[in-house]
Structures
1.
Amino acid sequence: MTQYKNLIAGEWVAGTTEVKNINPSDTDDVIGTASYASVKQVADAIAAARAALPKWNVGTTQLRSDALSAISNELFSRREELGELLAREEGKTRAEAIGEVGRAANIFRFFSGEVLRMRGETLASVRPGIDVTITRDPVGVIGVITPWNFPIAIPAWKIAPALAFGNAVVFKPSELTPGSAWALADIISRSGVPAGVFNLVHGTGALVGDAILSGVDAITFTGSIKTGRQIVQRATERMIHVQAEMGGKNPLIVLDDADFDIAVNCAVDGSFFQTGQRCTASSRLIVTEGIHDRFVHAVAERLGKIMTDHALKAGTQVGPVVDQRQLDQDLRYIDIGVSEGAKVLVKGELLKRPTPGHFLSPTLFTESTNQMQINREEIFGPVAAVIRAKNYEEALHIANDTPFGLSAGICTTSQKHARHFQQHSEAGLTMLNLATAGLDYHVPFGGRKASSYGPREQGTYALEFYTIVKTSYLSV
């Protein structure tokens, strides 16, 4: 077994507690052990980051670009090996995991170019003999706290811009996926990034996450809305930069005029693949009356053919739920949906496979209402509910009637409705004849309402969070 140590000031350091990393496809398989850092070690990591900052943020842009390019190259060349590790500890299929590692490689490659595309402005002053320049400085030490569902891609889209724009990083991954985080940290440590600029600390949010938040200059977080709100509150009390992505309850509208096969594919892919463990998953399927019955039965038929099995097994389409706690949450919401009176067209069942694991087949509710708990709260599993709508206008109203606002989709062949939806959807991401899940790495990502707080992630928009604008007046 591999021991996943902490990376502090360029050294691999054992923590104070060892916690097993369990394979959700085979709970008898212990992949390794995560070495949890102490509060003192977190403070050491922050101090190391702060000490390393001057050399990194005033060094040549070529150094930073070359380091990020090296990270990208190694991720890409090892994508199958790292994808297998990712699938083994998180539970997504091998193909999905390899694709995620490739995405992380592309993110680092993109930001290796952004290092060289940093722009400033020179403006004429309203006063004679004065020049005005507008530039951007790095924020400082960035705390990065990431979830388990994309354990390489989400860290990549936070760490890459942080390093690209001259910041130092203290990174805390999810307790459920320490192996992927350790592998990424190992690659970064050998890329040419100076010791101390990037640090990895394992542990719980209550201990390690809190210690990070107490000492950094900015915090970027992806995870639950409860934790996100606590982080935002603490960060604003300290008056530091904060960015939080906190999930969604994403709608997919299917209109009578939709291309039927495309609509079914969008619903099945967006709702159930990757075990529904995506913040962009479409857990509310809002379907107009003319297509409703045919549509729900087609989706049900497709769900009956989905192969849920070991993440590394050939032919597996949906892997296990990530751990017992998440599985219990999924089952609890299925029971809630039944108690609320939603009709169970396809009921998720615990599946027995050759290896002991958290295998749950998909659940599809019909005849649900938007006020039911299963349609108000994020479940984060292979569970979706169909809501019947009279027409497009009612469907749009239902789609927007949620405390969340991350991703929203519509299946239609009507340009009028597509355009209206794009303009009036209260979500940060809109999809036309596409699953609500599925993103490009070079464009902004983020939502509205309770889904997101702070500047957008990814692409050129990442500059807004990871830098501070400076206006300089020069007497000439």
2.
Amino acid sequence: MLCSSAAGASAGVPAGESLVAAEPRGTIGIRLLEAPISRRGDPRALSYIIDHLHPGTVIRRKVEISNTSRKPQHVSLYPAAADVVRNGFHAPAGRPRNELVSWISLDRDSVDLPPGGTATAQVTIKVPPVASRGERFAVVWAEVAAEADDSHPVRVVNRVGIRVYLDVGPGGEPPSDFRIEKLTPMRAADGSPQLLALIRNTGGRTLDMNGALSLTNGPGGLQAGPFPADLGVTLLPGGVAPVIVTMDRRMPEGPWRGRVTLSSGMVKRAVSATFTFPASGQGFSVEPDENHLPLVGLVAGVVVPVTALGLMVRRRRRAGRARHSPRHRGRRRAAVPTS
């Protein structure tokens, strides 16, 4: 979900960034209530409207709008254009339009919510029969505005949104895939060790990258992690971008054996390499040993509630952990202070 708050005019909000106004007067939320069963293994589908449609297709998705403030809220609902700019999902301020926005409608343009109240709305996407092939981006926004007054001389707008990634074309959905091309150990300006994984989108759909790094075979046999990757990288087909993992600056330099596991939706890739963090700046890049994890298959057509879809994903993960959980863990964790 995208979040933004703005006083007066605002810059666009890239992926994952939340801008907080000095004094927001109202807290609202929006979440997706249903998603295609074909994406039951796709965590992105629990939060975003993601689909591949033939020209002439119509889909409908329910969303829930919530008011978590202590005051009644009048919430405006509308779609607006978005794009992928400099490897980030970019949602400009205001209500810009693009082709996808002209295909999106809501069954209500506003809701009035009491404190703690919720309401549902239906998002309809009608793809014209003559629509051209390609992927398009938009956001379905829920917005509250506090008008300027004597106590607050600046008009404040708060909005939250659900991203829309819609691919259009005949036949099946273009495959999603990526490759981890190299790993580079380095130091941030504050001295924190970092690992940069260079990612190339080798598929036909836009990717949102996330993942983690685990370290083994460190000094004295230490191991550490997993450390989460920094979020916010959205990669168009053919695009190349770095995904960075940042660790505690008291981490020993190494050498370490690192395993990077990255994913976007149902696609996961993992690589391993041995490296040493430099004392400062950028270290030597290494070519990783590739270990591609299997893709999750697709099942077409049915829409299910997001809560049920999430339960299926969690049960599958729990079953996998039960099968593969080791009985004993003989290696020591890294002695990194926590205070």
3.
Amino acid sequence: MSTHQPIGLGIDAGGTQTRWALCTADGTLLSEGTVAGLSALQMATNDGRNAVHATFVELARQVLKTAQPHRVRAGLTGFGGDGDQLQTWLAGLLGIAPGAITLCNDIDIAYRASFAPGEGYLVYAGTGSIGAFIDAGGEFHRAGGRGVVLDDGGGGFWIARAALRHIWRNEDECPGRWESSPMAHAVFDYVGGSDWAFSRQFIYGQERGAVGKLALAVAASAEQDPAALRILEDAGRELARLAQALLARFGPRPVALAGRAAELHPAIAASMRASLPPGTILTHSTTRAHHAAARLAAADHTAAY
């Protein structure tokens, strides 16, 4: 594809899926796609680095079928500022200079897809969860987002863990109770069977993004199983807690809810709304972070020349 406008590549890398988009400076979407999920935390091990590089190879292959970008904005979950190797890989695969690639945390991109700095609070629920505020001076403030082992309440992993905990506590008290639970049927179908060995392998042997996808089965059973619905409502209250922390620290502002876990079932947003202080404006953001990142990348190139 030929275009005389600068082309920006936006990347939104999460634990469940990595989304990319190519946009021109005027905001025209040229193409988009998805590859496997990844986290900057994977760079701590050899296997993790190999997996990240393989995902970048596939991403570059898809992108270059449309066009070569001039600049890249990439938001990665788990990113803490050390991105030299990631920049080098992406630059080599895309055929551009490392300096043309801007890396940041994925929530920075997601926030800017919903608000200008200082405007509001973002609560993002993907595999994990976080509340974010970028103030008028550009400083990033967080609530939560500490990882699925410690917390990340209301995210996909948290929902999956809550469902498995509920099911197996019931089995402790009354073996075979799962047979009368629509949620348990959906969960066991997903993990491969009703024996504990399947659940153990799933929760302890999978990457966190893969575990988070189990939340889909929980949401699918919510209309038939009150326990599933309660878990989703509890997830909404967990997400409200993140917004409440930011509201208490920085004062009243609109709140945007975003992320794939937030879209699992209407009960999540409804419960969150009911848990927020009266008068709080809550919107469910459908703006795609990878689109916003691509527009920012194209604008970066325009501003540089």
4.
Amino acid sequence: MFLTILMFILSYLLGSLMPGFWIGKLFYHKDIRDEGSGNIGTTNSFRVLGTVAGIITLSLDLLKGTAAGMLPLLFHSNINPMIVGIAAIIGHTFSIWIKFKGGKAVATSAGVLLAYNPHFFFLAIFVFIVLLLITSMVSVSSMVSFSFAVIASLFYHDIILTIVATCLTIFVFYRHRSNIKRIKDGTESTVPFGIYYSIRKKQNK
């Protein structure tokens, strides 16, 4: 029991690390919570801090999820990595370092999935990239990719994967509720590439 509690605490603390926030503060003297969408995750880091900072933020958010998912292996525990990884996702969303606020945990969730099932992770990432190239919207790509993950998990006959994927999908949709409103209003932010971005750019000329 003590070992399980310890892993959950460590997982939460790993998830609570906020690279986007700290990179903005230390190297750019900006608080990304006050600029762009106000989110401290990857998308807003790209938007406010630039490509290099965005890539580093994405990599670290992904890595901390993977590190959390690897804790059972490190401690020689039989507990499912997905279950331990949930604490990291909670940590990213409610970080102890920034007054229990945080991001939408898409990259961190993907990192946990990478630790648990690399094949499934790369399948989900492939779907995400294809959707991003079509819609030019990270929010849409994230929500649809997680929905796809739930459906795909049924073919793996892994009840833990299906349950966690379903819970995460519901959570991701909840965290993206403001994005859903902007999508309906046609005001959602887009990345500077993709089919939808190209169409809008031509229409605005």
